[in-house]
Specification:
4 strands; 226 residues; 4-stranded antiparallel sheet; alpha+beta
Length: 226
């Protein structure tokens, strides 16, 4: 008799359904906020935050639909196989957030409330701590500095770089292609600042030098994705 009961589909009552989906929504919100807080680079997407919440709620619904029915599980796999996801995830860490959303939705959908809450809280704390520690980061440079300069301005910009930076490694020199007598070149430096808040002062000092123009500063302390 007990073996037969294992194959009777579970029917969730309305109160349980609402509780499971509400918990899934709350957990999805928590995961999305942690994602937004710990995200680095330029590949941030608001739609990805919404996707995390939707995935958590939808997976909880899926788990309640399946229940303990093996037939429903296979039918659902066949129905979902027609869906094609072509969105490219630029940051590999984003994949982990999708899995967190899936796992929390599965736990909420099966009424495993403690597992769902404990899992999301522990993973969120771990993500925040690793973010604060900047774990795994190898900082090779802080900024990339590029400007256009004449040969006469060489001694001036070198003195300014010595004043504001710990290291200023010349990465590239590109000819500007000027046909005038005063030829200029584009210079690119890999720069590590002595003080993080002195970037604006250094840029202003370089801009005041005759013969230097088209200044560009690119922050490279964190990962940049395009």
């Amino acid at each position: 008799m007990n073996n037969l009961n294992q194959y009777i589909p579970i029917i969730y009552d309305p109160v349980t359904i609402v509780i499971n989906m509400a918990l899934a929504c709350v957990l999805g919100l928590i995961v999305s906020v942690v994602y937004k807080t710990t995200h680095k680079g330029l590949s941030y997407s608001q739609s990805f935050m919404l996707t995390i919440i939707f995935v958590t709620v939808v997976v909880s619904m899926v788990m309640m639909v399946i229940g303990n029915s093996l037939a429903r599980a296979f039918a659902l796999v066949g129905a979902l196989s027609i869906i094609r996801f072509r969105t490219v995830i630029k940051d590999t860490k984003d994949t982990a957030y999708i899995f967190i959303a899936l796992a929390s939705g599965m736990a909420a959908g099966t009424s495993s409330y403690f597992l769902a809450c404990a899992g999301v809280i522990i993973v969120s704390i771990m993500a925040m701590v690793l973010h604060k520690m900047n774990f795994g980061s190898i900082v090779k440079s802080e900024i990339i500095l590029r400007f256009r300069a004449t040969t006469e301005a060489t001694s001036f910009y070198q003195a300014i770089l010595d004043d504001f930076t710990r290291h200023a490694n010349l990465l590239q020199i590109d000819p500007s292609g000027d046909k005038d007598s005063e030829r200029t070149v584009f210079m690119t430096f890999d720069v590590i600042m002595k003080k993080d808040d002195a970037i604006n002062e250094m840029v202003r000092a370089l801009a005041d030098v005759d013969g230097i123009s088209e200044l560009k500063v690119i922050a490279s302390k964190t990962d940049v994705d395009y």
